[in-house]
């Protein structure tokens, strides 16, 4: 510390044999600021590359510079769906989880201002009237009413950094809340995108089932005509009727799932589920490619990891606050005003009064309270370190999960497309052969069931690609601006 007057004051006020102790106490207030926890300190080895991205034959991912403060960007615009963009914007304004996180951030910032205010001089006005005995007045010593009015000033000399560390802890709490707000906003955006894309996929699947249902109904009409003509048995009619009823049931199941997703989407955008609806999709949403960068960028950009790191630093600062409780507290006080036993003489110059003082306090015995508080602060620090390590591990797992899913889903989509083409060709050939009486009705129904199943499977794979893409954006802490 550069200031030397506290050392001089303490050496004059205490015996010489206590000077070393006083010096040690002053130097204890110069402890350094808390250090940010690094992944390797938390027992997490940062890999050089993601394993899924390093697989042979996988596309080359763009490496982006790490920047926690880098704007996450409107990543949802990559899906090129105006309805999705509108829903995400609405959720950012009206979602209750975002509003709750914003309120907690405002509270943390207010607590920071309160902690900073404790480091400033405290000025207060005071006035009072009291009845006292033995007051000397112009009429002698007698009971009198004593009136006082004045100003009081107090200021605590933060020799050992207790107030500074409390302010640092509050500041770090506010940073953590800001990161959690950003994390909540990203989570809500991802939930809106995934829910919306799943809903659109169910609508497409419902249209596919309706198309198959119309084909089954046409087959049923044709089969009934042939049954009436005596060309087929009643068993053929029963088979087609079964397919029609089963397909109608599947259509109703899809409608039920759509209703649930629509209601969930209404809650996400802060709307009432009753009467909530979406305009029809003009075009199919695009499937953007999200570059994951390198593992270290994930730790730098994910807001939840940043929040966990700020929580560690805040807990570390509060350990310093608990340690500073062992050292003396030195406060300067001053007051100035008027005091008079006669209310009419209160503000006369002769009634003026003033005083200055210095208060040094050091608890000698507190029943182990300070030791317990320091132990609790250290325990909270250990818990914050464990939470930070867990958040880092979770970040790596989530990115690896989505990268693996996207890579495998791309291969699955290609295989499923081949299956759809083959199934459609088989249905076409079976229908022609059935109309010419070369195959049985059972073979035609099997071909149509296979085609419907494969088409629906292709839609589900496509939906999984959408969901995994949004999941990768969320795992990366937002979208990259690849144009910069």
From TrEMBL:
<keyword id="KW-0564">Palmitate</keyword>
<feature type="coiled-coil region">
    <location>
        <begin position="237"/>
        <end position="264"/>
    </location>
</feature>
<feature type="signal peptide">
    <location>
        <begin position="1"/>
        <end position="42"/>
    </location>
</feature>
<keyword id="KW-0472">Membrane</keyword>
<keyword id="KW-1134">Transmembrane beta strand</keyword>
<keyword id="KW-0175">Coiled coil</keyword>
<comment type="similarity">
    <text>Belongs to the outer membrane factor (OMF) (TC 1.B.17) family.</text>
</comment>
<dbReference type="GO" id="GO:0005886">
    <property type="term" value="C:plasma membrane"/>
</dbReference>
<dbReference type="InterPro" id="IPR003423">
    <property type="entry name" value="OMP_efflux"/>
</dbReference>
<keyword id="KW-0732">Signal</keyword>
<keyword id="KW-0812">Transmembrane</keyword>
<protein>
    <submittedName>
        <fullName>RND efflux system, outer membrane lipoprotein, NodT family</fullName>
    </submittedName>
</protein>
<dbReference type="GO" id="GO:0015562">
    <property type="term" value="F:efflux transmembrane transporter activity"/>
</dbReference>
<keyword id="KW-0449">Lipoprotein</keyword>
<dbReference type="Pfam" id="PF02321">
    <property type="entry name" value="OEP"/>
</dbReference>
<dbReference type="InterPro" id="IPR010131">
    <property type="entry name" value="MdtP/NodT-like"/>
</dbReference>
